[in-house]
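Need tokens for this chain, all 349 residues.
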Amino acid sequence: MAMIETRTNAEGNTSFRVKVRVRGFPTQTATFARKTDAKEWGKQTEIAIKEGKYFKTAEAKKHTFKELVKRYLDYVELRNPRRHPWVKQYLAWWTEHLGDYALSEIGKTLIIEKRDKLLTGEKKRTNATVNRYMTALSHAFTIAINEWEWVQDHPMKKIAKLPEPRGRIRFLDEDERKRLLEACQVVDNDLLYLLVVLALSTGARHGELINLRWKDVDFKRNVIVLHDTKNKERRVLPLACYALELIKKHHAARNKATDLVFPAPRNPKEPWVSRPVWLIAVKNAGLDDFRFHDLRHSAASYLAMNGASLAEIAEVLGHKTLAMVKRYAHLSEAHTAGVVERMNQKIFG
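Here are the structure tokens for all 349 residues:
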């Protein structure tokens, strides 16, 4: 129940201190200049405690967004170090705009207001980029709710994602592929040629290949086993033909001071930074609008054009659903037509 004490200070000013005691919970106190405010606070606090809402609300009032981000980044760095740098980048922007707000003051309207600044500010972001900012913020609140109990309700649960354009499909045609591979063979570092061939033949991501270790290359089974993938599931990449031949040669001449398949020349304990020579090769090959990740799109496109089903492409690329590989559906029309033709021949003769 709530108890109110009347207090008068040395200057003759009166205040009202209210105490709320509920069995099984710590005593809560607050001081007000008006008795009516003290009574109302006592009444509402007692109801909130009995309904199990008070302490969650109190935590949200006690902590600022800046404190949430600091604790969350420590959490991510410990559990998912590879994710930490980009999450830190996105949350730095949110901290700049929400840092001093108490968590209790951050709601849907405020978040949408700040989100729109990403879209319309001096540095305008695309819908896809803004969605990544929103995803980073959303997960931070999810952890604050589920693990720390700093917030009771998720402020982003009714905010829809912004519409994004269809997935990019940029793949190398025969002539472009030939020019790129030739350009990779004449750059200063011969690791680039192997890296590009592996990317084209397996569909692996740049980070998966550049952090690859020899212990993950199984020459008995002729596969690469990826343990640390984007979706957190182990994936096996078959090695065949030319790619297998190249990696065997590279293994025979490897730097035995490191277990990395692509070590940095000056510091073999660290992965090689391939971007500078990659950009040179792309420029020398005369390729327009081509990124390293497009080698993955190229691998998927070649699979589709050689009869692989969408399920098979998803398996090779490591996608959990078919949604991400539907962009390649039009490239497998010949395969689909063949399936339909065989079915018709079987049932109609």
